[in-house]
């Protein structure tokens, strides 16, 4: 059965899978579930009211799939100790959001790790989409903050391993604790749900009766939001000295080529993902989004079409079922290679960057506007499905020539297929495109001043 709802796939519920949670439930005898904040491949994240008020009235509770809750990765938080130390020694700048506490909750699907986090603002993924475009006034500042955060993380010997726009969020100017639940309802509107009766006719079902759609944190009044970014979700982080040799967990569009072809992980792969995110901040579709429905082969093909000159052994590397084969080849299986698929359809970085169109920020801002109005322009989109990457949108200005030239230069240095030659996060930070004086954010809106 197809699933087009922006929520976790129902089949993630089952023995060992996600924890069935409904609005109003009490989790771990303590947390009352108010709203959904998000979901990922391994967890659902909820806005909950903590009856113990240990970290304030409202916190974010990440409830992990039962099978993953026993995984050694989740059991150890040692890898991120250097980040915890950095936060502690620098007056909690809030660059890296680490769990405040962990508890366990048992459901009919198993025993779930529940991680407590402070509530944050919207994730970057929701700010630059096909129908809402981030004002460029924020883009370079976000890019600088991100490059600095990644440089700091790498200097502390930690690799994130899953850097995507879903794992970068805006921080809140102040906690939501002074808001009543009724006020939260007014801000977010009625909860949106999707019933699951067709998926789970059996009783008792391993799933809740319905899945909940995530609230749009951009609906918070703009004075709750800051333009300060933080990195979240260190579940796949590892020490640079002990990088795992395996296909990364990162969504396929963000896979670095050396990971696909040699299973190499490390700081350069984070920098590759950083480059993808910088492009995501300016265009509503990932630069290496493939047309094969999201698979390593599709990403490799896009990389190959865009960058050319991949090493010959990569062009001949065997894929089975769209995944790279790193084990000995077996007889009787027909493997495919990039050489089999490759067609020269003229994509390159110049072309892709030339497609960028950005909205102009209105001069005046009202006190009552939502965070989303403050940060992004909503645009009516008329998709031209024949050319896939072409948008017909009003009020958007093409990227300037000098901007494009510098941006292509930066992306070219990040998207070097040779990970040893690829620039570091520190070099990204020093690149002229990021060095350009950032526009004066103090004029950008009510919440932009440091808190
Ligand atoms: N503290 C928070 N405050 C507000 N929203 C949050 C918070 N933590 C997570 N979210 C939202 O929930 C989403 C999923 O969270 P997270 O990335 O931690 O889950 P995951 O299952 O580990 O995902 P992944 O598939 O990346 O491993 C985030 O993209 C974000 O939108």
From TrEMBL:
Q: Which UniProt keywords apply?
A: ATP-binding, Kinase, Nucleotide-binding, Serine/threonine-protein kinase, Transferase
Q: Which GO terms describe its cellular component?
A: nucleus
The protein's matches in SUPFAM superfamilies, at most eight in alphabetical order, are given as:
Protein kinase-like (PK-like)
Give every Protein kinase domain span. Answer: 31-434
> What would you give as a GO molecular function for this chain, any one?
protein serine/threonine kinase activity
Entry-linked SMART domains: S_TKc (SM00220)
Q: Which domain of life is it from?
A: Eukaryota
Binding of ATP occurs at: 62
Give one Pfam family, short name only. Answer: Pkinase
Q: Establish whether keyword Transferase is in the entry.
A: yes
- Keyword Cell inner membrane on entry: no
Q: What does the record list as coiled-coil region(s)?
A: none
Q: Tell me the InterPro entries matching this sequence.
A: CLK_kinases, Kinase-like_dom_sf, Prot_kinase_dom, Protein_kinase_ATP_BS
Q: What is this protein called?
A: Kinase-like protein
């Amino acid at each position: 059965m197809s699933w087009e709802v922006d929520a976790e796939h129902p089949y993630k519920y089952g023995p060992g899978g996600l924890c069935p949670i409904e609005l109003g439930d009490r989790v771990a005898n303590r947390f009352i579930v108010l709203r959904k904040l998000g979901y990922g491949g391994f967890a659902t994240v909820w806005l909950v009211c903590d009856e113990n008020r240990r970290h304030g009235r409202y916190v974010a509770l990440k409830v992990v799939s039962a099978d993953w809750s026993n995984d050694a990765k989740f059991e150890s938080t040692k890898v991120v100790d250097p980040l915890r130390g950095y936060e502690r020694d620098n007056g909690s700048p809030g660059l890296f959001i680490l769990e405040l506490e962990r508890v366990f909750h048992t459901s009919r699907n198993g025993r779930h790790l529940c991680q407590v986090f402070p509530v944050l603002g919207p994730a970057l993924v929701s700010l630059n989409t096909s129908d809402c475009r981030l004002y460029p006034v924020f883009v370079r500042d976000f890019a600088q903050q991100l490059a600095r955060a990644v440089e700091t993380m790498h200097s502390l010997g930690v690799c994130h391993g899953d850097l995507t726009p879903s794992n970068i969020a805006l921080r809140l100017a102040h906690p939501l604790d002074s808001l009543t639940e009724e006020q939260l309802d007014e801000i977010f509107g009625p909860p949106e749900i999707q019933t699951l009766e067709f998926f789970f006719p059996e009783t008792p079902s391993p799933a809740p009766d319905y899945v909940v759609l995530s609230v749009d944190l951009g609906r918070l009044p703009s004075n709750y939001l800051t333009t300060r970014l933080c990195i979240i979700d260190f579940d796949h982080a590892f020490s640079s000295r002990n990088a795992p040799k395996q296909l990364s967990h990162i969504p396929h569009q963000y896979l670095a080529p050396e990971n696909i072809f040699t299973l190499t992980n490390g700081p350069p792969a984070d920098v590759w993902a950083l480059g993808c995110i910088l492009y995501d901040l300016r265009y509503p579709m990932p630069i290496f989004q493939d047309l094969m429905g999201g698979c390593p082969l599709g990403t490799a093909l896009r990389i190959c079409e865009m960058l050319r000159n991949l090493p010959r052994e990569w062009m001949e590397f065997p894929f089975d079922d769209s995944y790279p084969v790193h084990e000995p080849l077996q007889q009787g299986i027909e493997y495919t290679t990039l050489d089999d698929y490759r067609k020269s359809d003229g994509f390159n970085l110049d072309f892709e960057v030339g497609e960028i169109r950005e909205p102009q920020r209105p001069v005046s801002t009202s006190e009552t506007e939502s965070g989303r109005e403050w940060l992004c322009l909503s645009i009516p989109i008329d998709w031209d499905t024949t050319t896939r990457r072409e948008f017909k949108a009003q009020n958007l200005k093409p990227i300037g020539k000098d901007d494009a030239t510098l941006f292509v230069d930066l992306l070219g240095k990040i998207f070097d297929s040779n990970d040893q030659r690829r620039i570091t996060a520190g070099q990204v930070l020093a690149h002229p495109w990021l060095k350009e004086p950032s526009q004066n954010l103090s004029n950008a809106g009510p919440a932009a001043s440091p808190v």
